[in-house]
Fold this protein.
Amino acid sequence: MNMTKIKAATVTLRERWQQLTGLKYFWPVFLAAGLAFCVAADRYDFVDLYLQLIIIYVGINIILTVSLNLINGYMGEFSVGHAGFMAVGAYIASILTVYVFPQNAAGILFPAAILAGGMGAALVGFLVAIPSFKTRGDYLAIVTLAFGMIVKSVLENIDAVGGPRGLLGMEKLTTLPWVFFWTVLSVWVIRNLVYSNFGRGIWSIREDEIASDLMSVNTRQVKIIAFVVSSFFAGVAGGLFAHAIQFINPRMFDILKSTDVLIMVYLGGIGSIAGSVLGAVIYTLLLEILRPLGVWRMVFMPLMLVLLMIYRPRGIMGLREARLFTPLLDRVTEKLWRQRKKEARHAAP
């Protein structure tokens, strides 16, 4: 397809889109307004503390869902060990703020603790990915499931971090502004990753890994890098989670936690950033709305997932993306492709 024609169509579509919707400055205005709201709510407490905690949980779950969707949705693999990487990040960040950093400087050094938790989870993810991706198909699920069990068992047998009793003593350092920052950063990084040239390789693995190899995509390298990025943001979410509730123990990061993240991914839709955000928001709010039901809410939520898999197996936004998350050039290319296909259909005898 002629690139000059695509660029010209891009300019035309951009102008028309801005005229019709007035969304020329949508993202700058949205981000500025969101940050201002979070800072004001945290400083002046005009939002109830319970609602602030719910918003924090929503942000953490968005980070978890978007990062896991990179593997399960965009790459087409099946990982069930996300809670293990979350545990690594939570414990590393907590150990730093409780035992390593000076207590009077823990708040200042909190970003470094979260970053260290993410880097530690990324390193562990790299070590898990090397042997895992020598296999294909459902074997990754078995390996990551075993990894989650190993992490839980190891943490339960280390008395220095509390063993099965857990670790406490963290200050409540996870605030709305920090959650907003890390949520926006995770969505921005993964969105740019999946729509980059490297990200096309991730998509190609989902469609046909053998064809990707034949088209000179280094599938092993792509898998490892995607897995490391996913693990990093899972570790970041773990660090934020630990400093939001100020107490962690190994039981918080068992297979049930990984299942929660999987539900959010497949509820919102695989291969969709907007779907990940939607799934995390719906699932988190439903858990709170249904809290009066007690234990029965844990029956209702899996039942909802079963019905979703029957009637909409790809989720609400499965393999579809909201226009606000799609690069303009992709929208133009798709529009020109559809127009060309329509012209060819009309021209056919």
Notes: Residues 3-343 form a domain with the ABC transporter involved in vitamin B12 uptake, BtuC fold (CATH 1.10.3470). Residues 93 and 273 are 27 Å apart (CA to CA). The chain has a mean pLDDT of 88. The chain has one domain: 3-343.
